Input
Amino acid sequence: MMLASVPYWLQSIFRVLGGAVAVLLPAGTIVYVFLFKMMSFMQSRLGPMEAGPYGSMQLFAEVGKWLQKEDITPERADRRIFRMAPLLVLVSTFLLVAVVPFGPEAYFTNFDAGVFYMLAVSSVSTLGILIAGWSSANKYSMLGGLRAAGQLIAYELPMVLAVLGVVIQAGSMNLQTIVVKQNSDSIFGWDGIGNPYILTQFIGFLVFMIAVQAELTQAPFDMPVAESELVSGYMTEYSGFRFLIFFIAEFATAGVFALIASVLFLGGWGVPFRWFGWAPNGSHEIANWMNVGGPLIMFVKMMVLAFLIMWARFSYPRFREDQLQRFAWKVLIPVSLVNIMLTAILKVVF
Amino acid sequence: MVASSINVAQNVGFYLIAAVMVGAAISVVSNRNVVHAALSLVLVMAGAAAQYLLLAAEFVAVTQVLVYIGAVMVLFLFGVMLTRAKLGRDGDLNNRNWGLGIPVAVLMLGVISWAVLDGWKDATLPADRGPVSTKAVSDSIFQPYLLPFWALSFVLLIAAIGAIVLARKD
Output
């Protein structure tokens, strides 16, 4: 509404800036709060304390450190592809945030096939990781790249299938519609808290979060970068700001996937109480300030889910490669298929 | 055809993307490095997705990205890298019968251009047409085209079973 009076070029600048904030702010927060502080507390140490109060400026120090390091390309590497690969991974993260709705009118695009788009774009990063491993001219990188590709392909399937349950229940692939449905639906006639799909799609939620953990190559699923076997996997040969790009992409993608999971399962930017203007019959009158409040609510939900991802990361030891593949194909995929069947049957019955 | 009925921006976009696609397609067949050729193919696929977006067929565009870039090309690169991942140039990539490809390609170009030009003549897309909704796509898959959809599913299922049979040694 407000944006309609703004010329298109200015809207585009707003969108780009908003996208940068929506990607980088969660990434920075996740790195500082969870990677620096929570992990340290779990290991009975303080973590960074020197830069700024409680080490809160440590992030800037780290970025500065990486930026001033030498940018090394291995002599036998395929230079052009070697340099392109990290950018491809980061671009996929930025494209991913484009469909996430942050408020009644605070979205980048209101994309009809949003869920589908999200799954498609997230699979592009696999390509970046694969060519990063190949172009490094290093056996460890190559193995890491191949492991990453195998893992990402295997876990993309349960992710798609887990999301299908939500799509069936909402009757739409538009993420904004999914948010509205969750906040205004009722659970068997009781509309006190709407119908956040984490309640009715709990199996889907579990499968989705496990698949996200694997897609992010976070700890129980971090074979592609297994440091005790592969040095640093596909990232081995990267230094300086190219490594920084991989690092940012890893945590930015964690943040964006947490945002997407909160849209799909936790009701997105809405809180389903009457005084937020939700009405079960579809005649919502969402207050305008929800365009500001929505992003904050999303941020809180994102932090909760990112906490779960990081908690699992710091708690569990790494799987073996064959265990990883077996888990995806023999446990997660059948479970999510059964979930789809049950959801479809219940949808038809009720 | 009236000049004012032509959407200039869309046409400029089409020809730019088409030029990139043609260049990338030539690179696919002429490149001396298998992985570079495969990456050029990725560029061609991405160009096709962009063209679908220009035609307001967003669901088809997303499917193109998901299936071809996200799955087919990743598996393709995976296979190439497992078997012959050579950095640098590769000598013996050309098939001896590559000359045969030229008449086949010309014939295909002729047939497709004839079919497109004859089928649509001077028809233009209405300028104010919004994107094709996902619902419309699914409605047509599951109503008029249900039988071909089933047939295709069976073909895919048979292919999957065949792959498992071929891959299993026991």
Chain B touches chain A at residues 35-36, 39, 42, 58-59, 62-63, 65-66, 69-71, 73-75, 77-78, 81-82, 85, 87-88, 131, 133-134 (CB under 8 Å). Chain B has six helices and no strands. Chain B has a mean pLDDT of 83. Residues 128 and 154 of chain B are 39 Å apart (CA to CA).
